[in-house]
């Protein structure tokens, strides 16, 4: 559980001022985000029934926090990892039309997360999903949506700069698009994370595309579940974060699978048994809309825009005492 301590760290804002800034950033971001992408806010579940197949299994190794309940004996209830599948069903259920979408405040627990400056077991993000046409399941739609989100980030940066001029961390003026294969071709001897750091340091802000499938080397850049993103039409929004000398991921998103891509990726993932779940059956039977969607880390956005050294400065979670003591000694006050 390594923690990077910046040299001569200055938090700029007190813990109380930071709490006020968090509220300002969250309110400003979600209002602008909803307006620019035509998204309405919906309430969302914190837990789902395992048998629905709605939970996100992330890389496939993480185990969701689960429990049983008196009202549903014999059912395993799971804290969500994300709402990737739930959102798509919600769009159908609530009758969203073409180019309309939703966002929600998603709160989750990922108990298997390795703790560091960016990672906590508590996840808070804006999960969002938007209806698109079948002929819009392409890279052009993906790129245009990434540009919209980047402009929302720039708008919020400007608002934070006017409200907290001494604290704001300034962002690049442009985002660049790069594929995982291009990174492997350029740096075959580096690890995927080293490649991400290298390209983001060079370009400032990057949308790293095509995550989940196999590269020419036979390796994967990173894992993605096979049943929500199309691995050819997805990616992560990364910013170079100077205080910690590494890339920070703000969003994972993508054009979602259609019927053909779902079957193809389930086979590659050796997960064809999932076809039995209600979500997968609804998709294969044409009962769900075609969509694009993703998640945007709320604490990560606050951390980035306020120049914080640790995600624990902008969210209340649980940390090892040794980490708390090390941060406190460096002026990093974990909430």
UniProtKB/TrEMBL annotation:
Belongs to the class-II aminoacyl-tRNA synthetase family. AsnA subfamily. One of its GO terms (cellular component) is cytosol. CDD domains: AsnA. The lineage of its organism: Bacteria, Bacillati, Bacillota, Bacilli, Lactobacillales. Pathway: Amino-acid biosynthesis; L-asparagine biosynthesis; L-asparagine from L-aspartate (ammonia route): step 1/1. It catalyses: L-aspartate + NH4(+) + ATP = L-asparagine + AMP + diphosphate + H(+). Its EC number is 6.3.1.1. PROSITE patterns: AA_TRNA_LIGASE_II (PS50862). It is found in: Cytoplasm. This is Aspartate--ammonia ligase. One of its GO terms (biological process) is L-asparagine biosynthetic process. It holds the Pfam family AsnA. It comes from the Bacteria. InterPro entries: aa-tRNA-synth_II, aa-tRNA-synth_II/BPL/LPL, AsnA. One of its GO terms (molecular function) is ATP binding. Keywords: Amino-acid biosynthesis, Asparagine biosynthesis, ATP-binding, Cytoplasm, Ligase, Nucleotide-binding.
